[in-house]
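User: My collaborator sent over this chain with a note saying "see what the structure looks like." That's all I know about it. Can you take a look?
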Amino acid sequence: MLCKSHLIFFVVTAALVLISISSADERPNIVLFFTDDQGYSDIGCFGAVGFETPHLDKLAMEGRRFTNFYTPISVCSASRTALMTGCYPQRVSMPGVLFPTSGNPVTGEKPGPGKEGLHVNEITLANILKDRGYATCIVGKWHLGDAPPFLPTRRGFDEYLGIPYSNDMGHRDARMQFRPNSNYPPLPFYDGDKIIETEPDQRFLTRRYTERAVDFIERNKDKPFFLYIPHTMPHVPLAVHPDFAGKSEHGLYGDVMQELDWSVGEVVRTLKENGLDEKTMIVYTADNGPWQHQGEHGGHAEPLRDGKTTQYEGGHRVPCIMYWKGHINPGTVASEMLSTMDLMPTFAKLAGTTMPQDRKTDGIEAWDYISGATDVSPRKTFVFGDRIIRHGKWKLFLPGQYGESVQRDRFHSDEEWQAAMQELNSVNYESSRLYDLNTDVGESEDVSNRHPEIVADFYRTLNQIKNRLGAKPVVVTLPVGAGPPHIAIGHSVRNDSLGRKSYPLPSPHSVGMRLLVESGYGKYVHANSHSRCFRCAKSNVAYSKIMAGTVVQIYHRDYSQT
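Assistant: Without extra context I'll predict from the sequence alone. Here is the result:
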């Protein structure tokens, strides 16, 4: 592999690296790649099979590879919230995935922009860097709200080219087939705050994003810039430029990954040609793990367990490479925990500023660890939603229902696979589970019976963290004949700045569901272990189990104090 250690070269080179950021002139440009549904092992130096990623491998060889890098939630909008705010998503009431408004022939509602988005009072990474004089640009998928108040150009970005949500939320399904009866609006493609076309040819998205990224770099080479590239791919439906079609040994998914690698190469080439190589920090990572339910169109997370929408390692642990010539020790591997939330405070430090002081955030400034000045990460603890915590090598799951991936290659036919997904997608565990990730990264051996003291300590720690995130126990009181809009369940229930009271029910496989109490803005609650029926339950079952007296947890940031 290109990124295997060349020990002598790297020891000598690392000794020459300067890891100090002192003056305004040393503020780095920042290029942040954030792919969609890319698996942990979908890069050559992370173990990819069937396709090649030479540009990423070279970036890792000349930079630093992170093998315990986490996203707090394993779905799109929540993971992007963590990146943009430096917060656990539940702190800012963003638990899952945002959708555009579907047309409803019964109510007469028309397809259009979604009703929710990242709260307008949240300060984003782009806001912080823009305030420090950075030019800011996003090319790719936003997915933090598509109504005008939530668009990137209102959230700190000077420029925006791309789609506002996932590429399967239009008139094309997960296999790029046209859906004539889709209730979604046609997939919009934005330049700035204007829709310039709908249902763009997705074969050319990666190419269009890359060309705009190159153009942005060339136009802003004489001042600091922040270039955020959240690629649409490899989220389904997969699509690839004709130049890359059929070029890998791993079908369409491999072709897509090779084009993404080309995109990285084009950006790196442009930086070098413009003399910006030593002035620019590059980060490459993903929003969550692979969507394994998509079979050959989904990615890979080996040797990790499961993928997207689950709370196992394959859902949350993502590949990460960081590079900054002369500042990050080349050819090194960082094997301790770090998170997407930690990028915002670290970038703030490099830009010569700090995180907002008028609100609580969860990211940890980690420049010494990122640069390689130390191999000890400042992040010791990480929580996955409400019921899972990792501290050091240990990871504890509280009792409850958990979504689990069912991989296609375990079955002889698509029919058997689909049947298994319906049956096994949600599994109930009556007792806690404890895994030693140093010896069991695949989370296959529960050792909770051997370490009861760790289980008890983690229970206490997890409750303390929930309290710090703003969780408050509330007893649900149902009015007579309760139902929408008085009370509703749905992963879309959040951050409606207009205070709307009608919300959709979840799909059978939703994660991070919320119960809406009293249906007003800011009334978001999360079921705890005493009300597991709210988790990954079909809507009719979940509704039937809403009982007066149920204890739930409220998460809500008090924006009146910010």
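A starting point for your reply to your collaborator: The chain has three domains: 26-379, 388-468, 472-561.
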